[in-house]
Amino acid sequence: MLRTIIHVCICLLPIILLREAKVEDEGRYYSPIHFTEGMVDLWTKSLRGCQCPFNTTSNDCACCEKNGGCHCGSAVPTRCSQCGLQQYCGGMCNVTIQSSDIQKRSRKSFGQIKPIPLDGPGVCIFTLIPTPHQRVEIQLYRFRNIGYFNGTSCVGGYIQLIGGIDSVNETDEKRFDQFCDRDERFRPPLVLFADGGRAHLIFRITEKFRTPSDFFAFFSFTSINDKSVGFQPKGGMKLQTSNCDWLYEDANCKSGCTLASPNYPGPYPSFVNCTYTISTSSENVWIRVSFYISTPDKQCLTDNISIYQGFSDIPVEVLCGYKRQVFNFYGPKIRVEFRSGRKIPPFNFYRGFKAKLSFYEKDASVTLPITSPSVSLYKPSTSTLQSTMPYTTSLPEDFLPCEILISGNNTRSGHFDTRELDWHSLCRWTFKGHPTDVVHISLFNYRLRAPSCKSVIEVFNGYMEDSKRPMDRICSPETSQSTSPSTSQRSYLSKGNIMVIIMRRPTAPQSTDEAEFISLRYFFHDEQISGTMQPESLCDVVYYGSKSPLAGMMENPTSKYFFVVGRLICKQVFKPSANQSVELTILGMENVSKKAQCMTECGDITGCLCVPQSSLDEVDHLLIVDENGLNVGCVCGQFEKDWFPISVYSWKTLTIIYSIADYKGKDKGFTFSASYSFNQDTSCGEKFYTLHSGEITPKNISKLHFNQYFYLSCGWILHSNVDRQLDIEISSSHNRPCSSWNISICEYKADAKDYCGKLLDTYCSRNLSDKVYNLQWKINAVVIRLRSFSRKMPEFRVKWKAQVNHWNIKYGSTTPTHNSSTKPHFWSITGLLFVVFLYFYL
Q1: Alpha helix positions (H), 350-408
Q2: Are the C-beta atoms of residues 159 and 145 closer than 8 Å to each other?
Q3: What phi, psi does 82 have (nearest 5°)?
């Protein structure tokens, strides 16, 4: 009886809270759930006064809300519940609520969770399944004996919401935030959100309390298109190697972008460190960020937002509390870091932040819009820009008399020569980048004069104390003087974000000509954003579809300074994973020499080609090649700007090659703007079919611009372990030459390239509208391969059917026939039967 009274009181209490709660405009952070004045709850209009569904002679039952309410039946005659959940009128535990089912039965996408009070220990799990365009929202109004907070964690019980996984266990529960309190009424409600599909609301009690544990909550399957509670980041790209790191680029934010803390507008997780990198393609672009922040004032030391200009490790601003603030920055890059610590009750004020992001071209005649009285303007530090030796004075405890730390936070590339510094017998240079950086060093000039290895240069991958041996050791006497191409350069690439160089010299020189020295160039490379550096190269990188950002802007190689005289070649390789395609788009090029004897020509089935008067190596150009080195796109010298953008769409590896014929340090050559994207796409690639019949049709990919080329090499292997005869039919509505696209059929060979053995035939849409192939008996496995390079996506249909009954086979060949007639087969069989008849008759 006591349990029932407690349960009813808890259920009735939030009615007052719902009526009093005000939903903020800027931050409407939970879905408004309305009901009419005077109702008992969401589905019960009154406790009595309506006909009982189980006894039509009685009017002593509850009256239900007509839109979505259903009577609870004889078990609870004075209450109604949501249609589809009326079987749980007495309480819920271990229930699955599916959005599509609830909406069909009650025409509502929200409802109430009525848990069975737990004496403890015990657990109830409520599984909520949204549609693909919804997120799960839980509004918690009341806790009663849901454990307690001991200062560091929940003890005795908790409630938590876990999203994005099919099932949960206690190990999963430890990884997510837990909410608890002995007796708490939340005003406003504690609102939790889960994205990524199926979510689980866990109600776990591990201790026995004097009275049963209970809570009151509403659920909502909220549209992700809702501008407030359905918040989704806009324009950014989540980095695959991190849980909450994002990349925002101006090319993807032409209509504005939004960023926010995880789970916004619900409570953000404890102990997170999220980085939002915002970059522009040019220094002539402003970055404007408008913040709306909601974090507890008392936790500013642990829960805050730090904003960094460029690569500096000193924040220009740290934000926390409850405020709105607008900032304007010069490009090309800023970094926003959101950090959080441990949550302490009350839990309903940990909303985090959201921000609107926009970009503006610099123009002295245009004033940036100001929408808030709190607007700040930040410019890059002049000293940082002009500094050629970005050393820091913070030294380790075991510092040497000659100790220099070069930080990737202060500079991204540079050069130094020890002859410009004071002489010391022992010097150490430490290069330290961001956590996701690697360090590249080119040691091109050095001189060690002392005999018998008394002078030494050592290069360490990481700190000396953590390295068993150096990456390289150069002993005296030895000299290297590189004045032209990097044939004699020593290049090093770190495995982590730290590299150390040690130089030991026994005696001071008598003159500058006798000085022992080293001269080198260095740069820091962020592999999380800009691809994986290749150890044996100066500037080659690989973007892997499995771990690189799924989309982004390519980096101009000459943003770094290389010690190269002559030809410079830098490759950016894009390797899609299985079931991925990749698209490379050249948006434009600047500072290309028009004097170069080279022209660009674009055609339908040839793509964009470079046509040099002599050798292509002798002119600056940008080239796209496939995994076999075949040219699929090229731009050089004279070209029409209206031809841009130029893109290539493929399911195979593509490489963009930046080539400067005569590279010079001060004159860095041309620049280009280009983007890439990895797309989840199963319509091409290599597919394996064991079905005896089926059909293949291409995916309809919308054409975005004129010079968009589809470069396809798709393979479908039809395989069987039993003897059979295959009939294959190919048809198309296109009328295109074979050079545009074609489909080949060949016998399967496991050790052959593309698994293609003996070629049986090649289909071209211009030759015939359709073809039928009746393959020989026991050709059990064949490869059907599509090859295409065209502005138009191929349109075709491939059908196959296998005959496994030996008596019904067609004694045909691989010679194709028109699909419109089957008479040759009929007369061949008829003629054969006639000959057999004559043989026995005569």
Answers
A1: 382-386
A2: no
A3: -70, 135
CA gyration radius, the chain: 35
How many Å apart are CA 427 and CA 226, to the nearest integer? 60
Contact criterion met (CB below 8 Å) for 120 and 187: no
Is there a single domain that holds both residue 374 and residue 423?
A: no
Tell whether 205 and 248 lie within a shared domain. no
- 130: preceding bond cis by omega (within 30 degrees): no
Contact 601, 594 (CB under 8 A): no
Pairing of strands 80-82, 541-544: unpaired
Q: Which of 650, 680, 710 is the endpoint of a domain? A: 680
Residue 114 burial (CB count, 10 A): 24
For the residues 768-773, what does the mean pLDDT come to? 80
Residue (of 409, 400, 393, 296) closest to 353 by Cα position: 296
Distance CA 779, CA 501 (A): 64
Contacts of 369 (CB under 8 A, 6+ apart): none
Please check whether residues 377 and 443 belong to one and the same domain: no
The residue assigned the tokens 């000299």 is 479
What pLDDT does 216 receive? 92
- CA-wise closest residue to 447 among 483, 479, 482: 479
Q: Does residue 834 surpass a pLDDT of 60?
A: no
pLDDT tens figures, 190-244: 999 998 889 999 999 999 998 999 999 999 999 988 877 877 788 888 888 777 8
For the chain, the domain total comes to: 5
Distance (Å, whole) CA 54 – CA 35: 26
Please give the helix or strand (H or E) that residue 103 lies within, else none. helix 99-106
Residue 783, pLDDT > 80, answer yes
Residue 235 Cα to chain centre, angstroms: 12
Question: For the chain, give me the number of helices (H) and strands (E)?
Answer: 6, 57
Q: Is residue 840 part of a domain?
A: no
Q: How many residues does the chain have?
A: 842
Burial status of residue 732 (CB atoms within 10 A of its CB: 0-12, 13-18, 19 or more): buried
What distances in angstroms separate CA 73 from CA 39, 77, 637, 756, one per listed residue?
Answer: 19, 6, 82, 68
Per-residue pLDDT of 306-365, as tens digits, reads 999 887 778 999 999 999 999 998 878 899 999 999 998 888 889 999 999 999 887 644
Question: 545-549 contacts: CB < 8 A, separation 24 or more?
Answer: 545/574, 545/575, 545/576, 545/577, 545/580, 545/582, 545/678, 546/240, 546/577, 547/240, 547/241, 548/240, 548/678, 549/237, 549/238, 549/239, 549/240, 549/247
Amino acid found at 105 = R
Residue that is written with structure tokens 């809270």 in the block: 17
Q: What is the CATH number of the domain that holds 450?
A: 2.60.120.290
pTM: 0.72
- Nearest by Cα to 643 from 590, 601, 691, 606: 601
Mean pLDDT of 786-797: 89
- For residue 763, the enclosing domain spans 686-826
Last residue in a domain, options 501, 525, 549: 525
| Residues contacting 1, CB < 8 A, separation 6+ | none
The answer to whether residue 16 scores a pLDDT higher than 80 is no
Same domain? For 32 and 85 the reply is: yes
The neighbouring-strand residues paired with 688 are: 717
Residue type, 838: L
Q: Quick one: what percent of the chain has pLDDT higher than 70?
A: 84
561/164 Cα distance (integer angstroms): 44
Give, as one character, the DSSP assignment of residue 606.
T
Residue 612 CA to residue 592 CA, distance in Å, equals 14
pLDDT for position 391: 45
Structure tokens at 420: 């410009």
As given in the structure block, the two tokens for residue 360 are: 């503006």
Mean pLDDT of 531-536: 88
Rounded Cα distance between 821 and 355, Å, is 66
